[in-house]
Specification:
Elements (H helix, E strand, L loop, with lengths): L3 E2 L6 E8 L5 E9 L2 H14 L8 H12 L5 H19 L9 H14 L3 H22 L5 H5 L15 H10 L4 H13 L3 H5 L6 E2 L4 E4 L2 E5 L2 E5 L8 E4 L5 H10 L14 H15 L8 H12 L4 H8 L4 H8 L6 H22 L1
Antiparallel strand pairs: 1-2, 2-3, 4-5, 5-8, 6-7
Helix pairs in contact: 2-3, 7-11, 8-12, 13-14
Length: about 350
């Protein structure tokens, strides 16, 4: 049951039912709590001591979960999780008792997701959020088990195909948007540095050292619920320095000179991702190159580096991946002939060794 506030005392109370030692059902009220969360936590603890079930609806527990996580997650991350629950999970489970949700219920919900959502990676993200809430309930509120773990996972971590632009395709696209300097430089930086779009939109003149050809990534930008948010980078590894090609420097300097009254801590690109998506559609239509997402420019940069012979560690550091396995998992398919090359080199070494022995 949900806690209520006593308007006379300002304290919280909670009504509940329980079965006493004689087997009789009783109704009681516990008062004097300072917060709603304190009252609900007490009831959960009391129910477990009495051997009763975790008698709370999924919707009520979700609110408790988000209240707790709000102090531990970035605002942008929290809003993203909230959106997934409100749109993809709560409509299905909100009024169900948390401890009565079965593996079968989860499987039916998963099948619904598979039928209605197109992206396998998006489906996996939604399912992971559901599993995370049940893990929380198991760990902190002694729920018996996580039905998501038994139901199995759905979706995929990475898409089957990765849409990227070659340098030739990108050049055609860039020529199509040359009439807008802000778009031209923004897309040039995305393609030639591999930075995330949020990192680009948070850039200030203070972040760019033209003399040493370095861009410092120290923050990220998002527009959420009509509010501009400048947040910490995605991970600690996202905080990095990117060395940029020399040919980009004049474009940056020319662009900065065009902005009247630009201060060192002003955003260089004072617009949102929506503007870039509109510009991308315009450029694709004019240039007739294939349609990709803005994030795919990051993949295009990685593909370019791989084709140039750079290794996983170098690409990991440039992209700001926390783990090298992330880089490998994401771009392993861009090394289609790597095993053939490896075997060929081993074969050459073997033959070279054999030849030397025969000559002796």
């Amino acid at each position: 049951m949900s806690a209520q506030k006593d308007i006379n005392t300002g304290k919280w109370y909670i009504q509940y039912r329980y079965t006493d030692w004689t087997g009789k059902r009783k109704h009681s009220v516990k008062r004097g709590f300072n917060t709603k969360r304190e009252a609900e936590d007490w009831l959960i603890s009391f129910q477990h001591k009495k051997g009763s079930k975790l008698n709370i609806s999924f919707g009520e527990f979700t609110e408790m979960y988000f209240e707790d996580m709000s102090a531990r997650l970035r605002k942008s991350t929290l809003l993203g999780k909230r959106y997934l629950f409100d749109s993809k999970i709560l409509p299905y489970f909100k009024d169900k008792q948390l401890d009565e949700i079965t593996v079968s219920d989860i499987r039916k919900w998963q099948n619904h997701l598979i039928k209605t959502e197109k992206s396998a990676t998006y489906i996996k993200t939604i399912n992971n959020q559901m599993a995370a809430l049940f893990n929380y309930a198991v760990r902190y509120y002694d729920l018996g088990s996580n039905p998501c773990a038994k139901a199995g996972t759905i979706g995929k971590s990475n898409a089957d195909e990765m849409n990227i632009w070659t340098l030739e395709e990108f050049t055609k696209f860039l020529d199509a948007i040359i009439d807008k300097p802000q778009s031209y430089l923004a897309f040039m930086l995305l393609f030639w540095t591999g930075m995330r779009v949020g990192e680009l939109l948070a850039l200030t003149p203070a972040d760019i050292d033209c003399e040493n050809r370095v861009i410092r990534i120290t923050k990220s930008y998002q527009r959420l619920k009509k509010e501009d948010l400048i947040t910490e980078p995605k991970t600690e590894c996202s905080r990095r320095k990117i060395t940029i090609p020399e040919f980009i420097i004049p474009y940056i300097q020319d662009y900065e000179s065009r902005i009247y009254g630009l201060k060192k801590n002003d955003r260089l690109f004072p617009f949102t991702k929506d503007f870039l998506e509109h510009e991308m559609k315009r450029g694709v239509k004019t240039s007739n190159v294939k349609k990709i997402r803005i994030h795919d420019l990051r993949h295009s940069h990685a593909s370019l580096l791989i084709s140039m012979g750079f290794g996983v560690k170098e690409i990991q550091n440039r992209l700001g991946h926390q783990k090298s396995c992330t880089t490998l998992d994401t771009y392993s398919h861009l090394y289609p002939d790597s095993q053939d090359k490896l075997a060929s080199r081993l074969n050459s070494i073997y033959k070279g060794g054999s030849d030397e022995k025969e000559e002796e």
